[in-house]
Amino acid sequence: MKRLTIFCVLLIFVSAHPLGAQEVRLEGDFIQGGLVFGSAPPGSSVAVDGRDLRLSPDGLFVFGFGRDAAPVAVLTIVTSGGGEETLHLAIAAREYKIQYIEGLPQTLVTPPEEMLARIRAEGARVRAARNVDMAETYFSGGVIWPVEGPISGVYGSQRILNGEPRQPHFGVDIVAPTGTPVQAPAGGKIRLAEQDLYYSGGTVIVDHGHGLSSSFLHMSRIDVVVGQRVVQGEVIGAIGATGRVTGAHLDWRMNWFERRVDPSLLVEPRN
C-alpha cells in the first residue's frame, strides 16, 4: 500500500498585544482523511470551520478531515491574551481505488428486511460511542499498528458488490489468521465491546480522547469491557471472520467524531 500523505508542521505566531507573540503548532496530514495535532497557548480558543475544539490544560488539540473534505479548512485561534489569527488550510485531494467483488450471497449485499431495525439500533450505539469528547489526551502518545499482516483493503476505496455501488470503505483491512492477537494502537478507554453486530461482528471501539477513536471489526474474541482503560500495545482481542465478511482479517477504522479518517496515515507504511 502506497502511503498518500502530505505531512506538514506549521508554526504560527499569534500576536497577543504589545507584549509579543505566542506560538501555535500544527502537525499532521493536510489531506483528505488526514489528522492534524496541534498545540496552542493554554486558555486559547480554537475552532475549525466554526466548530470549537477541546483544548487540554496544556493546550493540545486534534481535528480531522473526512474522505471527501473540501479543499480549504478555516482555522481560528484566539489566545487568552486577545491575540487572534484566522488560517486557511489547503487540504489535498486523493484518488481512491475502485474494488469489484462478484459472486457474493445477496444477503451480504442487501440485508433482509427483518434485519433493518437491528442494523439501525446497532448503528446508533456505534455513533454514540464515537461521539464522546473525553478530556484525556491518549492520542498524544502516538499510534502503532494493531496487528501484523498484509493489507487487503485501504481507506476510501469504493466497493462495487455484485455490480451495485456501495459506500466507500473507511478502514484498513489487515489479513491474519483467526485468533491473532489485536493490540491497542494507542491508549484509551473502551466505549464499545460487542460480540455480534450485524455487519461488523465482534467490535471494539477505543476512545483516545478529544473525539478521536479507533474501531476494530470482525473480531473472534474480545478481551476488554466497556469502561476499561487500556495502554498502547495492550491486547484487546483477536482477529476473526465474524459479521459480514468472506475471510479472517481486522478492519481497523479511526474517527474524529463523525468524520472518518485514515489510520494508515499515522503509522509506518506497509507494502
List low-pLDDT spans: 1-5, 15-20
CATH topology of the largest domain: Glucose Permease (Domain IIA)
Cα-atom Rg, whole angstroms? 20 Å
Distance between the termini: 5 Å
Classify the secondary structure makeup into a structural class: mainly beta
Order of helices and strands: EEEEEEEEEHHEEEEEEEEEEEE
Q: Write the CATH architecture name of the largest domain.
A: Distorted Sandwich
Number of continuous helical runs? 2
In which range does the helix fraction lie? Answer: under 10%
* Beta strands, count: 21
Share of residues in strands? 35-45%
Main β-sheet: number of strands, strand sense, barrel status?
Answer: 10 strands, antiparallel
- The average pLDDT is 90
Task: Choose one word for the global shape.
Answer: globular
User: CATH superfamily name of the largest domain?
Assistant: Glucose Permease (Domain IIA)
> For this structure, what is the CATH class of the largest domain?
Mainly Beta
Q: Provide the domain count.
A: 2
